[in-house]
Amino acid sequence: MKTLIEKITAENIEKQVHNAARLIKEGGLVAFPTETVYGLGADALNPQAARRIYQAKGRPSDNPLIVHIADPAKLTQIAERIPQRAMALGERFWPGPLTMIFPKKDCVPLATTGGLETVAVRMPDHPVALALITASTGFIAAPSANASGRPSPTLAEHVYLDLNGRIPMILDGGPVGIGLESTIIDFSEEVPIILRPGFVTKEMAEAVIGEVRLDPGLKIGEAIAPKAPGMKYRHYAPKAELILVRGCQDKVVHTVNRLIEEAEEQGQKIGVISTDETYLCYPRGIVKNIGARKDETVIARNLYGILREFDQLDVDRIYSESFSEQGFGQAVMNRMLKAAGHRVLEV
Ligand code: AMP
Ligand code: MG
């Protein structure tokens, strides 16, 4: 199968979206930009189409897909027992990087929900995504458009690298805005639970609806499995071993430089994820600057792209500085710890 990358412009958006929507309506797959990461879309109410997503990504079949809508009023067609608090969150954060989980209606196939009786729903904040959903069937199931286990795509080129030959079309809307997957909040139990941290933080949600819990399964070293099936897989992973180094800045820089020196003496190629503050402090290794320490939005936007760059450079190991877990930093560190398989060096 040949994979077309279609660059979207103000002039061609209508025609491109029309063609892509036709593919979706026929049960096919289209990768498209959202504000979080690129998604791989199919008709959410067509089980055969949903199965094609799992095949193309090599995704485990128990890992449910998020259903994307372009109109909040559509929520009641696919979900049941939607509490008032969820409506309030939707009003505040949709369109946006927030996914909510409810008991599903019968029209949503188990192929889309990974066999679960609940459905995850989100209204994305991206003109191409919204136009595509509206022009197709109104309900597009879309996980991130990477091959399973790889970092999520933040550029159309990342999708192409992972899925070339496996899907017919990629809509190229340029770089995404946020760069990390949506916050997932589960409303299928009494107290809403964050199953995956994202741009919408616990504090932001609590300011609208009161108490929100964090899935205890997300904690490192916790014996309970996370409730979102996708969070249990080693995920977001670069090819090289990634190690986070945590401590005060001077000690981190000193330790990483020593480790690079030792590894290079053994002929290894080492990558470093540094910041604006430390970029010039690493004389050796292949050094990438992820952005200023105080701005998690920039760190988030650069993270997956940098992990992919290191894959292409074929490094043997990556050392990364680690970041604050406050606010959006919690989502950033959640992804980094997963990418690192929780390998952290305290200095
Ligand atoms: P992705 O779209 O690739 O970010 O993956 C979707 C994420 O949402 C995965 O981590 C899934 O496990 C999670 N998810 C989707 N639907 C549900 C659901 N009904 N219950 C729990 N987690 C879900
Ligand atoms: Mg994903």
How are the elements arranged and paired?
Blueprint: E1 4-7, H1 13-25, E2 30-32, E3 39-43, H2 47-57, E4 66-68, H3 75-78, H4 84-93, E5 98-103, E6 118-122, H5 127-135, E7 140-141, H6 156-163, E8 169-172, E9 183-186, E10 193-196, H7 202-209, E11 213-214, E12 241-246, H8 249-265, E13 270-274, E14 286-289, H9 296-313, E15 317-321, H10 329-339, E16 344-346
Parallel strand pairs: 1-8, 2-8, 4-6, 5-9, 10-11, 12-15, 12-16, 13-14, 13-15
Antiparallel strand pairs: 2-3, 3-7, 4-7, 5-6, 9-10
Helix pairs in contact: 1-5, 9-10
Bound molecules: adenosine monophosphate and magnesium ion (MG).
Structural class of the helices, strands and pairings?
A: alpha/beta
The name CATH uses for the topology of the largest domain is: DHBP synthase
**Beta-strand residue percentage:** 15-25%
**CATH class bucket of the largest domain:** Alpha Beta
Biggest beta-sheet profile: 11 strands, mixed
Say which molecules are bound, naming each kind only once: adenosine monophosphate, magnesium ion
Total count of helical runs of at least 4 residues: 10
Average per-residue pLDDT, rounded, comes to 95
3D shape? globular
CATH superfamily of the largest domain: DHBP synthase
- The span between the termini is 50 Å
> How many independent structural domains?
2
Q: Please write the string of helix (H) and strand (E) elements.
A: EHEEHEHHEEHEHEEEHEEHEEHEHE
Q: Could you tell me the number of beta strands?
A: 16
The assigned CATH architecture of the largest domain is: Alpha-Beta Complex
Poorly predicted segments: none
User: Approximately how much helix is present in the residues?
Assistant: 25-40%
**Strand line-up across the major sheet:** 1-8-2-3-7-4-6-5-9-10-11
Gyration radius, in Å: 20 Å
